Amino acid sequence: MAIQPITSSLHSHFHLQLLPQSPTASPFSFLPGHLHSKFHKAPRKCPRIICKSNEDDYLIDAPVSVGDGFSFSGGKYSDGSSPSDEWFKQGKMMKAHPVSGSGEKAKDPVFGLTMGAASQASADVFRWFCVESGSADNHSVLLIHGFPSQAYSYRKVLPTVAKNYHAIAFDWLGFGFSDKPQPRYGFDYTLDEYVASLESVINEIGSDKVSIVVQACFPSLIGYFSPVVVKYASNHQEKLKDLVLLNPPLTEQHANLPSTLSIFSNFLLGEIFSQDPLRASDKALTSSGPYKMKEDDAMVYRRPYLTSGSAGFALNAISRVMKKELKKYVEETRTILMDKSWKVQTTVCWGQRDRWLNYDGVEDFCKDSNHKLIELPMAGHHVQEDCGEELGQIISGVFSRRR
């Protein structure tokens, strides 16, 4: 497994300097850490906003001693290590799946300006962020997140599964700390591309067989990563030992596109709102179940949207693909899972407090397809967030009984 230690720094610094070209052009100028006025020379105090969730201070205008005043660290103006930094330290970078395209520098879709390094594809092979836990000699279990989440969502599942298995959680391309190429410059975020990239990841891991746990996506893109895994498995059943689906799209009702997230697929508005970390992460993660996000966790989920525009453009691209293909993907998943040729041992774990996916029809589907159904009464759509430790025990129990 080609995994390389992380050496790059996570801190992103934005230096903004607006200087008037003439004495009458502007009474203000921005310099790192300070707002200078030609009319007022008195030093300004740093205004602070108190976060009600844990009473942490957010530095709005950081003094020079802690940074340039425009440096973000996981959703917080830089004044030290953040939860996002700590999570990053636990992971490694894995290279998998070749970069397509001409190698031309990516440009943003609105103004056509050349984008920064974070939005550029790797030179030859994409970089994936992954966190491993447990002995590599044990059977490998892939923990695959949904949209628009990260491998971080499995942080409470990893320790439990790793007791008896080699657990690996990774960020999909376009999410978390993995590469986020600009659409049309190496990766277009289509279903077929994700299927091919998943095959590359599994081949890179090198195990004869793996088991997969996959989180279904949000209704705006419901079934995007579940069909990716199911479609891959339908062509490579010999590579999979077990498959666990977390609140997957299984009925026609699950193919509906809610307005809350479909806005990311709109022209221009989609580009704008996909750059808002509160819309792209906080609102999406907390509106589909009982999950109450802690501020430290929110910092991790917001981080990609605060450090670069690439995460937002990836979200925008996937939304547009799914708006066109959603119903087809859901129906294809149903067909594959109910086909008599499907031989992979499959378990559906269902959080019954899911606000976006109706439970009606799920039980009948599992009976008709002969798949095991495990209900979690206190969990919502994000089972791994609501009941992480319990889910870890369930996964380990399911796999151990099938040894």
List keywords for this structure.
403 residues; alpha/beta; Rossmann fold; 9-stranded mixed β-sheet; 16 strands
User: N-to-C terminal Cα separation, in Å?
Assistant: 24 Å
User: What's the overall geometry?
Assistant: globular
Overall CATH architecture:
3-Layer(aba) Sandwich
Q: What is the overall number of helices?
A: 12
Tell me the CATH superfamily: Alpha/Beta hydrolase fold, catalytic domain
Number of strands: 16
The CATH topology assignment is Rossmann fold
Order of helices and strands: EEEEEEEEHEEEHEHEHEHHHHHEHEHH
Strand order within the widest beta sheet: 1-9-10-12-11-13-14-15-16
Please state the average pLDDT score: 76
Strands, helices and their partners?
Elements: E1 3-4, E2 12-13, E3 28-31, E4 34-37, E5 48-50, E6 57-59, E7 71-73, E8 76-77, H1 83-89, E9 92-98, E10 125-133, E11 140-144, H2 158-161, E12 166-170, H3 191-205, E13 210-215, H4 225-235, E14 240-246, H5 259-262, H6 269-273, H7 277-286, H8 295-307, H9 310-338, E15 345-351, H10 362-369, E16 372-376, H11 383-386, H12 388-401
Parallel strand pairs: 11-12, 11-13, 13-14, 14-15, 15-16
Antiparallel strand pairs: 1-9, 2-7, 3-4, 5-6, 7-8, 9-10, 10-12
Helix pairs in contact: 1-8, 3-4, 4-9, 7-8
